[in-house]
Amino acid sequence: METNPQDGSLLERPVEQRKAPPRDGRPQSIKASRDSQEGGLYAERVKVYPKAVSGPFRTLKWAILVLCLAVYYTVPWVRWDRGPGAPNQAILIDLAAPRAYFFGIEIWPQEVYYITGLLVLGAVGLFLVTSLAGRVWCGYTCPQTVWTDLFMAVERWIEGDRGARIRLDNQPLNREKLLRKTAKHAAWLAISLATGGAWVLYFDDAPTALKALLTGHATMREYFFVGLFTTTTYVLAGWAREQVCTYMCPWPRFQSSMLDVHSLVVTYEAWRGERRGPHKAGTSWEGRGDCIDCGQCIAVCPTGIDIRDGQQLECIGCGLCIDSCNEIMTKVGRPPNLIRFDTLANQETKAGGQANRYRLLRPRVVIYTLVLAIVAGVMLTALETRATMGISVLRDRAPLYVTLSDGSLRNGYTIKVINKRRGESAFQLGVVGQPGATLVVQDVGEAHGSDGVTLPVHGDAVATFRVFVSLPRQSMTRDGGAQGSIPLVFSLTEQGPAPARPTFYEGVFMGPGAKP
């Protein structure tokens, strides 16, 4: 990976791979294995057999995995009291209502822009984290990584570690192989089914939905989505694995634009490790590097790459190669962190014998932070100040207007009033700026001039009213001439002990000469 001289970002460049066959059974990276294949436009997939490893980064990955899975599977069962008649599930996307509930926040369909805000926050937050610490999202919290880690743990438990799995795959089909493979895939399918079932629980009351699923009383839509997410989990985490990160996920393709030489990434200290080669106990380290070319960093990599080849789009930044290399360095008596989280700028200074230098505040970091703060501030302000009521007006298209017996003109409207409060509320509907207007709400009442009609609306509901507005014919005259249409402003005010701010909706009133 090279540095862009214009903005300091990192540019992906192909890396020369060693094409020699693996020596002494040492693991070989998937790139080197593909290079050794002869001919053909497309190379066959080289199956990756990640080896188990222990260390700080592996422990951190286990902790995050447990936390992510616990959140995913248990959140639908968390309760939240919203009052009588309201769903008590803490996080619920109720498509029938339709509403989205997030603890004390209730999102209506008209407020879908909050979802857009969350997506923007997630994207900018990912940009910020990547610019600071590389692909830690991919290595630790991405759903593909979490479920793949879980599937690999089950695979090791049933089939054994790397060597045992390779031998099992290479041996002919026998009773042991059949039993182990069957047990593994059965466990994978059970996890996938639990994953698909848990996803459906986010869209319906969890206890009710689970009972319906188990007793066969759920809808075909629910069974379809359980099957869909069961299949995708099984295929992506069980079979595709690193192929998703390498070929299907778009993030590696443009992650280099988020990185620069001051971003923390998994790096190999080539200045210290080269010249690499096998090392025997008791021999001198003079004239050679600390890397003994054992290949353990390749063996533990979930995507099967060789981190010593430099920055690669397949690297998910999990740090397991660091744990593996430190274990080897301890055994051979060399300093740890031959592979480490570091910046490329630091590697250059270390190679020159200078002190480390870290630059946390950089233009891209500042920009991402400011954008994140601005979007978060806008969303919080919008949540705090959002109205508890709303109005929408749809004018009748036919007839455009009606002439009454006294010569006045009448238009018909369908008005929807939204009451976002839990309790029933009364709203006053009026017409602004037309003293001669007559407002008639079908089955409710009539008002003249600046007076309004009181509309009762149930809590957490949308009420629909048929409204007729009449205006004197002279109201259609402006600047000495007749107008085919004029603006008509409706006002909606929530009634209560405290004065409320009205909501306005600007519609249109049609008269003679108006075009449909």
TrEMBL record:
The annotated regions of Basic and acidic residues compositional bias extend over: 13-37
Reply yes or no: does the keyword Ligase apply.
Answer: no
Q: Membrane-spanning regions, if any? A: 60-78, 112-133, 185-203, 223-240, 365-383
- Domain of life of the organism encoding this protein: Bacteria
Q: Name one GO molecular function term.
A: metal ion binding
Q: Which stretches does the entry tag as region Disordered?
A: 1-37
Record keywords:
4Fe-4S, Electron transport, Iron, Iron-sulfur, Membrane, Metal-binding, Transmembrane, Transmembrane helix, Transport
Is tRNA processing a UniProt keyword of this protein? Answer: no
Provide the 4Fe-4S ferredoxin-type domain boundaries: 281-310
UniProt cross-references to NCBIfam families, sorted A to Z: ccoG_rdxA_fixG
Protein name (Swiss-Prot/TrEMBL): Cytochrome c oxidase accessory protein FixG
Organism name: Nitrospirillum amazonense
Provide the taxonomic classification: Bacteria, Pseudomonadati, Pseudomonadota, Alphaproteobacteria, Rhodospirillales
